[in-house]
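Quiz preparation item.
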């Protein structure tokens, strides 16, 4: 009988920490260990796997091809490990958590995160409100939400913990829309939408004339308007519907757009389930496609 090789999850945790922290010293601080201890864990993991995980130089560490391949598996193993531990330690955690999120984010990146949380804590009920950021902030300030994911300008006044960054792109039903009018027709959400401001500020800086062709507070409504050819809109790259076209900035003379940023804000007093969901969202979204500072 051949014994199946196993990997200590703590070695994987050290590996993921080095990747996400950008180096051994920051990973050591995060793990509350000495830098030499973290280096030893990585060496043990490399020996166990028989591959080199990092290319090291005096300034930074870079994932090897094998390291990139292993990273996703490591994160999934740790996620399952943490779900199991949470389930065993807190089997009776229950209650209602009120979470707010922008509609586009709530229908793309968030469902899988909430599904995994619910599997670990089946007695916690989630009440999710999907609105524009301005409305979410109003609900939050009125005490109607425990947690809220809100769009903001980098280091903006909204506050909270940054949990996501993603490239923004110009989107249309076809590129001809950008060529048929002197003033670029825009499909946008009502003020003070971050995407709307990014679009108009970038066009102004670029010296490109524009006009608001269609305004709607519904993501579905804006998508329908773009499909109908009413104008161009701005969306996170990963949230562009398959039947719409991402416009190449350089080819059609549109200015580049700064990345979108989403922050998590939390009420000053949270229930135990809300605290657990806050920590879970922060940890899980750190594993997404956010970009480094």
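Solution:
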């Amino acid at each position: 009988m051949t014994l199946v090789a196993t990997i200590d999850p703590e070695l994987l945790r050290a590996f993921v920490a080095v990747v996400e922290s950008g180096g051994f010293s920051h990973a050591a601080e995060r793990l509350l260990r000495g830098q030499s201890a973290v280096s030893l864990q990585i060496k043990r993991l490399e020996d166990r796997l028989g591959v080199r995980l990092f290319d090291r130089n005096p300034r930074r560490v870079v994932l090897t091809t094998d390291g990139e391949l292993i990273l996703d598996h490591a994160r999934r193993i740790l996620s399952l490990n943490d779900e199991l531990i949470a389930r065993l330690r807190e089997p009776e955690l229950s209650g209602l958590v009120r979470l707010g999120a922008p509609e586009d984010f709530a229908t793309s990146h968030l469902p899988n995160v909430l599904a995994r949380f619910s599997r670990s804590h089946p007695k916690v009920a989630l009440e999710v409100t999907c609105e524009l950021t301005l409305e979410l902030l109003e609900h939050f300030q009125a005490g109607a939400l425990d947690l809220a994911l809100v769009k903001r300008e980098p280091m903006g006044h909204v506050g909270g913990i940054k949990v996501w960054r993603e490239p923004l792109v110009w989107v249309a039903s076809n590129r001809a829309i950008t060529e048929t009018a002197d003033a670029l027709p825009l499909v946008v959400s009502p003020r003070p939408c971050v995407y709307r401001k990014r679009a108009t500020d970038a066009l102004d800086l670029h010296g490109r004339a524009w006009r608001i062709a269609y305004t709607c507070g519904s993501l579905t409504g804006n998508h329908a308007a773009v499909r109908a050819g009413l104008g161009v809109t701005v969306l996170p790259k990963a949230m562009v519907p398959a039947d719409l076209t991402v416009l190449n900035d350089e080819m059609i003379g549109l200015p580049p757009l700064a990345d979108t940023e989403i922050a998590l804000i939390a009420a000053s007093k949270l229930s135990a389930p809300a605290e657990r969901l806050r920590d879970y969202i922060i940890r899980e979204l750190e594993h997404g496609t956010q970009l480094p500072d």
